[in-house]
Structures are given as structure tokens and as C-alpha cells.
Amino acid sequence: MLGGGFGNIFKIPELKKRIIYTLALLIVYRIGVHVPTPGIDTVALASFFARAKGTLLGLFDMFSGGALERLSVFALGIMPYISASIILQLLTVTIPHLERLSKEGEQGRKKITQYTRYGTILLSVIQGFGISVGLEKMMSPGGAAVVIDPGWEFRIMTVMTLTAGTAFIMWLGEQITERGIGNGISLIIFAGIIARLPAAVGNTFRLLSTGEMGLFVIIILVILMVLVVAFILYVETGQRRITVQYAKRVVGRKMYGGQSTHLPLKVNTSGVIPPIFASSIIMFPATLASFIAIPWIQNIASAMRPGNIVYETLYVGFIFFFCYFYTAVTFNPVDVADNMKKQGGYIPGIRPGKRTADYIDRVLTRITLGGAIYVSAVCVLPSILMTKFNVPFYFGGTALLIVVGVAIDTIQQIESHMLTRHYEGFLKKGGAKVKGRF
Fold this sequence. Notes:
The chain folds into two domains: 12-195, Preprotein translocase SecY subunit (Orthogonal Bundle), CATH 1.10.3370.10; 215-438, Orthogonal Bundle (Preprotein translocase SecY subunit). The chain contains 17 helices and five strands. The chain starts with 12 loop residues before the first helix and ends with a helix. By secondary structure, it is mainly alpha-helical. The strands form two sheets. The chain has a three-stranded antiparallel sheet with strand order 4-1-5.
């Protein structure tokens, strides 16, 4: 590690400021998770959610960091924002106006971000209204009503509260991305998952002490988690390196180029985006269905239970789709080939231009298939095994992939800041030496 390792992080003023700023906003988010929505019987709600562990509501609660279980002001979490982002990215490919905006640089991106915010508010209103109506019909196992005083006043208040909460989380995520360290939205989900880990571990030890879960089963699950984490680390850092040769060029009396380098293509180019997007797509209609007391809708919600074949099949399908879609959005082989050609670079044995773009696209398609299989296996297989073992908390492959992936991405950004600082210090020292010679 540069400059003595991570021990030097707080010796770099800008990096220290960014990390403290990020931690402060994450603390604000965790405080908001405990602020309840008005008009709710929290005891009756807790009794209802005690039966929802391992269901789709339990999964949604995991992404909201426990806010849904308490029905706090952040109960909707960041999922409406993610859903709006998915819709905007899909529309960017199909609507020419949005496609032009995406290519207009900073101003275009600001406009698309603005549309995403509007979409987030709209989805929050729809989802918040559905939840408010469903809450009025919810009863605890003891027969107590979850809503103290049902009616339109409660519905309007709930919609306004939940929508404002999601808007505030969206603002927190954007501030972390802009002024902090790491991706704000991913870090908010990361913080929600990590915050629930101590309680989940404590609950597991309680089941062990009461004999409801055997020691052998716990050991197997711990080993499985360690192996999955090791596998994620191995694949997330894996690359397919394409050799690129640069031709020699003579400029004046000097010769430039002639070196050989490589084009790194990550096995999982899309990172943790596919499982987050796939979960968001599935949870949006299924969560509303869970709150609506109509038999056929309840049957659909029951089928959309983690561990169920319908849920897992849809989940894998969406993961594959978003692996390819997000890779196509973020990595354009034609642009890479054109830039390579302008700089005098070529892949040995491949003609510059279209042939190079086709070759890169073919390689990227193949490794994306491997990446999609890897993400699906990590997200689905441990969850199925944990469902069969009746694990008392939903901390399966999806959560592990998000936690490890976000941690890797954040550490890489910290390293980039340290690297920049390292070279800045080198240039300053070098500048002083050069200056002293004249």
C-alpha cells in the first residue's frame, strides 16, 4: 500500500474529510431508521413482522435496514430511487431524446438525474399509498390492529411521510457520492445490512442455546459464508486481459510508442448492480401484493417467497438481464476501439476499427455470461440452502455479494485517493528540486 498503508488515511486532509463526512451521513440515515411513522401500533406491527422472516417482506426489510419492520420514515428505503433509475436507463436506450441527453456530458446527466428524482417521488407516492391501505387491514397474531386510527388522514400522512423519507435518503446518497467516499446508494444499502448483523448473530446463538438449531448446522453455515466471501473476492478481482500493442511514432527527432499494454475486462463488469436491480423489480409489485387482502393477489405474493422456484427463477432471469444490460450501458466496445485506433493501438492479429470492436464485444459477451452465472450462483444457491436449514435471518448470498462488492469498491476508491496524493507529493518534491536548479 502506498505511503505506509491505510494507517496514513487520516494523514491526508481531503480523504479524512470525505470519510468523516460519509460516516456522519450514514449515522444520520441509521438514526432516521428508528423514527416511527405516526399512527402505527409498533407492538402489533412487530408481531406481524415476526412471521415475515424469510419472506419477501423480510428481504425488503433487509434492504431498508430494518426500517420497514418499524415502519419508520425511511420504510420505503432506497428502492423507489433504484426502480426509477432502472426505468430511466431502459428509456434512455429506447427514447432518442433521452439518448441525446446521455451523450451531452455533464448537463445531460444532470437532466437525467432530475428525471430520476421525479420518478422516485412518483413511485414513492404509489408505493406509500399501497402500503398505507394494506396497513389498515393488517392485524397482529393477537388480533390487534396495526393502524390506530385508519382513514384518509392516515393514508395521506403515511404517503407524505414515506415519500419525504425516501427523498431524504436519495439526497443522502447523492451527497455521499459527491462529497464523501464510495457510491452513496450502495453504501446506504451496505449500512442497512451490516447494522442488522449483530442482532442476527445474537438470535442465532439464542437458537443454539435453546436447542432449536444444532451446532453442526451453524458450523456448516459459517464455513459456507466464508467460502462464498472468498469466492466473491476471487471473482470480483478477476480480469480478462486483452493485449494491446502501440505502434512506434516519430515526432521531430524523438520516437514514441512501441510499448505493449493490456485492456482489462472485469469478469463481473456490472458489480452489485444486477442483484440490487433484480430485487427492486421483484419487490415493488410483490410488496404491494403482500399488503392487499385479495386471495389471488395473496397467492401471487406467497409464490414470490425467497426459496420458492418462481421467485428464484425470476430472480436469476433479471440478474442475467441486468448483467448484460448494465455492461452494455457502461462499456461501449466501438468507442474503445475508436480511441485505441486514434492512439495508434491495436490488438495483435486483429484489424483496427470494426474488427477490433467486434472482437472486444465477443470477449465481453463471453465473460459477462460467466459473470452472470457467478452472480446468480452466489445470490441464489446460499439462499436456497439457508431456507432449507431454516436460518433465522436473511443474510444469504445477495447480502454477502452486496457487502463484499461495496467494500471492495470503497477500498479501491480510497486507494485511488491515496495514489493521487502520492503522485501529487512526488510532483511537488520534484518541482521543488527543479526550481532550485535555476
